[in-house]
What we know:
This protein has five helices and 33 strands.
Amino acid sequence: MTTTMTMRGTEAGGVLLLALLLLSTTVARAEDPYVFMEWHVTYGTKNIVGTPQKVILINGEFPGPRINCSSNNNIVINVFNQLDQPLLFTWNGIQHRKNSWQDGLPGTNCPVAPGTNYTYHWQPKDQIGTFFYFPSIGMQRVVGGFGLISVLSRLLIPVPYDPPADDLQVLIGDWFTKDHAVMASLLDAGRNFGRPAGVLINGRGGKEAANPPMFTWEAAKTYQLRICNVGIKTSLNFRIQGHDMKLVEMDGSHTVQGMYESLDVHVGQCMAVLVDADQKPADYLMVASTRFMAGPSSVSAVIRYAGSNTPPAANVPEPPAGWAWSINQWRSFRWNLTASAARPNPQGSYHYGQINITRTIKLMVTRGHVEGKLKYGFNGVSHVDGDTPLKLAEYFNVSDQVFKYNQMGDEPPAVNGPMHVVPNVITAEFRTFIEVVFENPEKSMESMHIDGYAFFAVGMGPGKWTAAERKTYNLLDAVSRHTIQVYPRSWSAVMLTFDNAGMWNVRSNLWERHYLGEQLYMSVVSPARSLRDEYNMPENALRCGKVVGLPMPPSYLPA
């Protein structure tokens, strides 16, 4: 009897051990959930701001499909290029940790040829918030192909506000009626394409934006609006007739929840707000207006309270005036130090103000003419893309055949000389904490973006930057974000740790200037060559230029 019981106990223990091993194996192999999409990218005709024109559609939609996901989801998008030109998509604000292979720019990826397809696979790793995507080659983005990306927190991570009644997209942007190929030809010829023809909200402009109503709200409920400026040139002010907005998130970070009558949203930036439907049932106008340009332009869309038959009031809210208002609003934005980030720890657990700066890179917008044609750049260097993506050249160790590192210095040249038109690649030591100062000597607005990272926007001010300006920095709760505006004849300073290995684009979001060379690439290489720091080139990665036919380099070492 005792023997039998012992055997049964042993069998039970073995079964339990096997179950535990199977469970641990399953957990170890578990992957984050997948979101699959298939996009067919085509041309179509839309009547926008009163003019029929060719636009870029995704699955027949303009704007393109919204990507709804949660932190760490695997996003798999099979893109079929049915245009007559090569195509790439970039994911504005998505950091692609260890994975610049998915960044979708000419410096990182070979384009998807007409009549072919390519599958992107990326994760919003440890990210939450509001972002957008757009086509990155040439001037294609001016005619569409853009759409919203909303990244929700995982279920176990608390969000610092109650779930809204609905989560709505508001894509605003300036709009031009010229074809993207025509606009590129004008720039290639040394000409510009002038002022925008109007402003759009969710792809609608003019009278079409106001009829039918864009949203229907239930009284006494709260709605979340995800607002992105997807335009190419113009800062916009957004407001809602009779309603204040509670700012809760900006470029992927929870913010201190302040109330605003209107918000300046600069090119490439995104914000999320909560709005209470607390007014009497009626129709109300959402308005987006151009800022900082002569002859302002606006577009209005209608929010209808359910059951309303009362048209919007005639007193359309006016936009604010001047630069001071906008700068003071920026100074009011604060990082929410107590809210959880994408991981279960407070956003403010990273004390960036206590880290020693190892390097300062001062990037001054440079404008000049080369062979009689206008060019833009940084510090006298205007970037040009080649036939071989920079990332591929670096990975296959043929960089010397494609570009030279560090042809641009960390300081603007003391004397303005001729513009140098070359692939502009500078290096940053892995995991160093660097201060980047953007200087804009132009009379017009700028908007700057760094791919692969979120940075702390610590300061801005008029004139030229000096080290004394550090005394004015916000070293406690500056919002961590990916895009910062630079006012005319002013500077903006950001700080970040270059801990994401890869090849990353630093650029003007003003696409005319970007096209004309106001961009560079930052090469961040891990000396360990370890999969802990960077992924190998994906098996499906396209090859072009000088890497066609080359043997694969050795794999990065296991983590």
